[in-house]
């Protein structure tokens, strides 16, 4: 893969990652059309790292609060174990600490529950996903699926649920759908947003949840890919090309994410649905013509 090809892939990743139009679908289509050779796991890991850096920067306040309250929740959970044994052996009646005492603690647990099915699906479907990325028809179908979800949610009434109103079964259900987004063309952001809104989430909270739940998903994907290549076997020059693509993806994503967040909050999703249908149709036609 040349430097120009790598930079182009990084640019497309940064431009599409934070819109509900599937960055993986765009990358798969671009690789097939330009006949870009296998980019390798390290390239994917670095692009994920660039994406993750942008997400952490954009939602740094929420991430900080989530980590803080998550650690406090774990600490209180361990403290309740001590209280249990002390009450049992010393016949005390010490009150247990309340674990879910605010919205961020609840959100931490909801994100954790959503991550579990996503991780399992990502591991189980890995080989199938690699096959799907090698042609234009698979991402075309994925884009049609994304478009249908985006089109449908415009007809759902505005929800009012915030973290305290959401059950863990709902979070698990959302995680299942997010896991399906490992297939190229199915937007993780789009399908997670759609399911959140269908479940009655407040629109602002649905957008935040869709982005925040992507952080452990992206981090997990990068880690899983990395442990499979204990020895990368790539030259310093090739690594430099990959790193340049990741930097381009990160910089582009950083400047685009705020604008894209405003677009998602204000605009109807039918615009993005139409784009997915058009790109999916073009990819399907190219699959049979080229």
TrEMBL record:
Location comes to: Cell membrane
State the superkingdom: Bacteria
Q: Work out whether the entry's keyword set contains Transmembrane.
A: yes
Q: Which UniProt keywords apply?
A: Antibiotic resistance, Cell membrane, Cell shape, Cell wall biogenesis/degradation, Hydrolase, Membrane, Peptidoglycan synthesis, Transmembrane, Transmembrane helix
Report membrane topology.
Multi-pass membrane protein
EC numbers listed for it are 3.6.1.27
The protein's annotated catalytic reaction(s) are: di-trans,octa-cis-undecaprenyl diphosphate + H2O = di-trans,octa-cis-undecaprenyl phosphate + phosphate + H(+)
The answer, when asked if RNA-binding is one of the entry's keywords, is no
Provide the transmembrane region boundaries. 40-59, 107-125, 137-156, 209-227, 239-257, 269-289
Question: In this record, what's one Pfam family?
Answer: BacA
Kind of enzyme, top EC level?
Answer: hydrolase
State any further remark: Bacitracin is thought to be involved in the inhibition of peptidoglycan synthesis by sequestering undecaprenyl diphosphate, thereby reducing the pool of lipid carrier available.
Role, per record: Catalyzes the dephosphorylation of undecaprenyl diphosphate (UPP). Confers resistance to bacitracin.
Family of the protein in this entry: Belongs to the UppP family.
Instruction: Supply the name of the protein.
Output: Undecaprenyl-diphosphatase
Specify the species.
Answer: Blautia hansenii
Upper lineage is: Bacteria, Bacillati, Bacillota, Clostridia, Lachnospirales
Q: Which gene encodes it?
A: uppP
